[in-house]
Amino acid sequence: xxxxxxAAMPEEERFILTLHYLRSKSSAEIAELLSVPVRxxxxxxxxxxxxxxxxxxx
Length: 58
What we know:
With 58 residues, this protein is mostly helical.
């Protein structure tokens, strides 16, 4: 079920969540990789977690 929910999420959110939680990358590392501010990465992680929670009914 988690794989289906992740597949339904926007690509950017899925990519950042994967880097953060499955590849154990910090927000700073992801920000550097994507050439964006750390705050932007943190915002995507927060919104993606909220979306994921809602999609999973948690």
